[in-house]
From TrEMBL, chains A, B:
Transmembrane segments: none annotated. It comes from the Bacteria. SUPFAM superfamilies: NAD(P)-binding Rossmann-fold domains (SSF51735). It comes from Blautia hydrogenotrophica (strain DSM 10507 / JCM 14656 / S5a33) (Ruminococcus hydrogenotrophicus). One of its GO terms (cellular component) is cytoplasm. This is Ornithine cyclodeaminase.
Length: 373, 373
């Protein structure tokens, strides 16, 4: 006798009902995931267990007129993971991105997450993951703000005024009750003004919008960096004051003197080791480095100017009290995060459990019994 | 104003209604995909555009009691692809496998396929893919039987009597009307007898069940090989008669003298080049070769005993008349297929289109309009 398999479908609206916009809960979830990462109780793809994901790489040009070609933010990526602890579940995030999407009334990326029974592979849930992915991305610097930022931080500079930084700021502000002002910077002035209006309305925080990067950075106690990859963001060492906390979610360029003097905490050292390994395997290490957030850091490590990854600190170790985070109010602390499928699986799982409990979503039947066993 | 996004959900039953069991149609679909592959009008994962997929690799042992560990057929794999031609669509197959599943009334693997708009990334369909995957896997040797087997083939040896070979045989028989007899071999005699009963009933073909591999192979005009990976299958050169067609869907070992004397046709030479590249990058070439169907062949190529992959033939080129397939009734022709996400996307797309036309499946709303753009 075959076994019936059912799973839960959650639309974007269902994920809201299940709590995806509750920034505090998302931070707690991400913090828990970080501790599992530092303990090693997870698997991502590949034989190194730490592959970020597998993407369709669109060619620069193609003899086939319909084939997608490389373009701004244009990609599809599959990101499988197993997450341990109380989650104990497998899943896969799958998404397509295209900078042209907003012209069509769509977000730049369209994402879904599948959760699966770790033993049988049966789907448990299939869900819209745009808000999930934004929430987990934002929750990561939220965790870092909780553990690394000065509690008396008053000014937050928002570098890059897109959707990602909305999630980041929403999350960071839950951790820093003294924040009085935000300074919003974007290469597009309209974007920084729109962001500021949104922040006033939704988060009740005041501030200013500027297209002067130096003005935005000087005076900031916390930087949240999630600028578009379209134009590199160069933040000079001298602009960054003592005691600053730099939360890096998107690419940032800075002087070597900053990298070598800041206390650097990684989201997960193993992930960065995997990036370096993949860079070597690609046959074009420098080219690969250019495409990843940690690229400038790996270059300095290779040159012997920064400590090796194996001697570095993951934030999970700070959370667990195994290594030191910020130790005084003067040091400049930088946190680098790259995005891991484990966070999608972790937060997706809690949304799924909440949905089950509250009767949110649509039950779908995979089969009443499998046609073939 | 945001754009509404809807997509179609197809349960296993829906995929049956949409025609997944129609072996002839599935072969036509796979044949079309093969021509696109040989023209290069597709993309799979990775910078080489030909990665088979990205899997969770379970460790042999783990300090975490809940973490899945390596076991028979135990894996999760994500397989993304873009397929061109009239399909012009992206998709991802995602599945988990576990040899323990049948004890729970489940198939060994549980599979789903997502199809996505190539430009926006929006999901078009999410579907149960167990039958889809079996059908496309079976259709591949069906295409090979159509183009490479002697039309007067009378005896088919079925090596490995599981679900995969059911699909293969169903497909092969649609192409070879002269077949009078099947010989079913499996290491488990009960499996071969069960297979024979099924074939009599569903396909109306008579034959015999045996646990004597030599007896099964000698006299066969066509071999369909899809045995479990649990025990290697060693087929001796001397058992394989002149004019035989060997259709390899699962691992087979044989004498070097067979490999070097048969005419070998690949499903897609580029895929095998990618396997060899990944083997080199893995740092354990020999170990990697052991895990893939083409391993014994790549070893002989590396030793200079067989022609290089770049000088080899893909079946798409035979279909298009660009290279020769079988040229006489005496030569022994072997076809090697490894499974590509392009076939899941191709067949999935036709099922989706049929379902749309016939009103099969369930429309699901991703969002009425996206919460964030």
């Amino acid at each position: 006798m075959g076994k019936k398999t059912e799973f839960l479908y959650l639309s974007e609206r269902d994920t809201i009902e299940a709590g995806v916009l509750d920034a505090k809960k998302c931070i707690d979830n991400a913090e828990e995931v970080f501790t599992l990462l530092s303990e090693g109780d997870y698997l991502m793809g590949g034989s190194n267990h730490n592959s970020h994901g597998l993407g369709l790489v669109f060619p620069k040009e193609s003899p086939f007129p319909n084939m997608p070609v490389a373009g701004p933010d244009r990609r599809f990526v599959a990101m499988p993971a197993y997450l341990g602890g109380r989650f104990d579940v497998c899943g896969n995030k799958w998404y397509g991105s295209n900078a042209e999407n907003p012209k069509k009334g769509l977000p730049r990326s369209v994402l879904t997450v599948t959760l699966n029974d770790k033993d049988t592979g049966e789907p448990l849930a299939f869900m819209s993951a745009n808000l999930l992915s934004a929430a987990r991305t934002g929750a990561v610097p939220g965790v870092a703000a909780r553990h690394l930022a000065r509690k008396d931080s008053e000014i937050v500079a928002v570098l890059g005024c897109g959707q990602i930084n909305r999630s980041c700021l929403r999350s960071i502000l839950t951790q820093l009750p003294q924040v009085k002002k935000i300074v919003c910077y974007d290469i597009f002035e309209a974007a920084s003004e729109k962001f500021l209006s949104w922040a006033k309305e939704e988060l009740g925080v005041d501030g200013e919008a500027t297209s002067d990067l130096e003005a935005a950075v000087r005076g900031a106690d916390v930087l949240t960096v999630a600028a578009s990859r379209l134009k590199p963001l160069y933040v000079k060492d001298e602009w960054l004051k003592a005691g600053v906390t730099v939360l890096i979610t998107g690419p940032m360029q800075t002087d070597t003197s900053f990298w070598t003097s800041t206390k650097l905490i990684y989201d997960n050292v193993r992930l960065h080791e995997a990036y370096v390994q993949e860079a070597i395997e690609s046959g074009d290490k420098a080219g690969y480095y250019k495409g990843v957030i940690g690229g400038p850091i790996y270059t300095l490590i290779d040159e012997g100017k920064m400590p090796a990854l194996k001697d570095s600190t993951s934030i999970g170790e700070v959370i667990l009290g195994k290594k030191e985070g910020r130790t005084n109010d003067k040091e400049r602390v930088t946190f680098v995060a790259c995005g891991m499928a484990t966070f999608d699986v972790g937060l997706g799982y809690d949304l799924y459990k909440t949905a089950l409990k509250k009767g949110i979503g649509q039950k779908l039947i995979l089969w009443d019994e499998p046609y073939q066993q």
